[in-house]
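Lesson 9: reading folded outputs for more than one chain in a single document. The general rule is that every protein is listed as its sequence immediately followed by its C-alpha cells, and records are never interleaved. Here is the first one.
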Amino acid sequence: MDKFYIEKTPSGCFNFSLIATNKEKICVSSQVYKSKDSCKKAIASVIKNSKRCIEENRIEDLTLQKKAEPLGFPKYEIYLDKAGLYRFRLFATNGENLAICEEGYKSKSGCVNGVRSVMATSDGSEIIDNTVTK
C-alpha cells in the first residue's frame, strides 16, 4: 500500500511525500508548512481533491498544441519542464498548488500514469510521521 510520509525540514518546517509500494516517490508537497497540523491538512486536501479529479476527469494537458478551455479548480495539470520532461501538479479547489511530481517523466503516458497513481492510491494511504523519535 502507498504511504504518505511527513518529514521535518532543516529549517523546522514540514513537508510530505507519497511513496508507492515499489518505493518510488509519486509526488511531494509543493511547499513547506510551518506546522505538522498544516502538513496533515494538506495531505487530507490531496486526498479530497484527487477524489474529485477522478470523479470529474479533471486533468488539464498544457502540452497540447491546441489548448482546450482551461479547467477550473481542483485539477491536475500536465506540463513540460525546461528540460523537456513531463511533470504534473495538483491544484486544490481554491487554486493552491498542493503537490508536484519530483522527477520528470520522459513520456506523457508515464506522467499520466503518475497522476492516475496518485488519484487511485492516495485515499486510504497510511500516513507515517517521520518527525516522531522512536
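And here is the second record, again sequence then C-alpha cells.
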Amino acid sequence: MKGCLLIHGYTGGPFEVEPLADCLKKEGFITLCPTLHGHGGIRKNLRYSSYKKWLDSADQAYKELSRQCDEITVIGFSMGGLLAFQLAHKYKPKCMVSMSTPIYCIDFKNLKDDLLLNIRTKNNQRLKEYFFSCFTPMAANLNFRILLHHSKRLLPELNLPVMVVQGAKDPVVRAESARFIYNTIPSDQKSLCFYEKSNHLLHYSCEKDRIYDAIIDFIKQHG
C-alpha cells in the first residue's frame, strides 16, 4: 500500500492539509494528518511545547503510517515542511512535497497587500488570524526558529525526489525560500512550482485544484 503523511504548519492544524488528503484518498492513497504537540487548541498551549515535541509527533505519525504502508510520501505545509525534511533525512521516504516551507520569513510587501485586501473584502477570519498571531508565546517562536535552523542544515543531505510548491503572493514565507530549498537539495529528481495567484494557504487558494493535480501527478510518478 502507498501512504501519504501530511504535516500541518506552525499554530495551525490538520485542517490546513485535509483538503489535499481528501483528494489523495480518492486516488487510492492511505493518508494521515496528525495534530502536532501543543496545536489544535488555544495558542497559549504552545508555551508548553517545543520543536522536539513537534518532531516527535511527526515521527510517531510516520511510524504509525509505516505499519500500514510499504511506500510513504511525506508532505509538509509551512513548518510541516521543516519537519518533513527531518523525517526524510531519518527514514528516506519514497518522495517528499514541500509546500510554503519557510527558510526566509515574511514578505512585507505581500503582507501589506494581503492585509489591505482582507480589510477591503471584510474577510474577518483572516483578520482574526493576523490579530491572534500577536499572542503566540515567545518561547514557541524561539522553538520554531531553532527547528528552522536544524532543518535547513539537512537540505544538502536529502537525495530523494522532491517537489517544492510556493505561492508567489505569500506574505508569510518569502519566495526565496522555495528557490533555496530547490537549489540546495542535491536530488536530480526535483521540481519547483510557483503559483502566481496564491498566498500562504495554498490549500484554500483559487489555484488549489491545479496545485493538487500537480502534486498527485508528482507522487504517482515518484511515489
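What the second record shows: The helical segments are 18-26, 51-66, 79-91, 108-120, 124-132, 138-152, 175-184, 208-222.
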